[in-house]
Predict the structure of Acetyltransferase (GNAT) family protein.
Amino acid sequence: MRDDLRLERYDAAQAEGITDRLVALYLEVYADAGEFYSEDRYRRQLGAHRQRDGWTLVTATTDGQLIGYIYGFPLAPDTGWWNGIQEPVSVDFTAEDGKRTFAISELMVGSEWRRQGVARALHDELVGSRPETRATLLVRPDNTAAQAAYRSWGWQEITHLTPSWDGSPTFAVMVKHLP
């Protein structure tokens, strides 16, 4: 990990003041990823996710510049997170009580800061402090670098899921059991 890296934790209210910075990094990271990764859709997603109980953000900065972040939230009993699973999984797999599963919605690092331990530092800072028994995330199947990193951090691919959002790609569902 970089010596000059600063990690900072935010709750939903605290993060409101840096929304434009979060969106700007998102747009940089997903600049060539297609229409689904638009500013409008992401602002709506970020706003909706921030409303979830337990929403937590960890940012990575160096010299005051935002270079990466990760955020997520515990899945509520009435979550729609699992809607769109394409392959059969047990009913127990998708049962949530608000304390079982922490969902990571975004983990991103600016292109010039990748392969320097920033993503791992963000991941460990957020996931390492969670009281839930497992965490989940969605990753594009064609993002082989991210999938390899997640596997090396103890994540397992379980199935695939296509969210109901307009133009949504299909994602691999990954799960990590937490200590």
Q: What stands out?
A: The chain has a mean pLDDT of 92.
